[in-house]
Amino acid sequence: MIEPNFAKGNNLIPVITQDADSKEVLMLAYMNRQAWETTLQTGKATYWSRSRNSLWLKGETSGHVQLVKEIFIDCDNDTILLLVEQLGGAACHTGYKSCFYRKVVDGNCVVVGEKIFNPKDVYK
Known about the structure:
mainly beta
């Protein structure tokens, strides 16, 4: 099986995560080999948290788990694309459907995304 080249990225490679149906980009995260293997074994998107320096099952706290439907690896074997079913409707820890909920318009940042939940209610 083709496997990501973790050595290229200092053992971390970027993962683009999209909604499997709408193809909306939900987030960008990182995986190390352990996160990759866990994702393959469980079918749930698992990443490496750079801020916590630990394995991170997406949705472990919020319940907004990502069920992996398809996995793509780019031509250089150093980027992963996950197509997922986003349970709970939100991928972003700020409560929005996508982490890319802001758009730069005429030099200003405008919120264009849909807020699904209040983070204060979820992350107590």
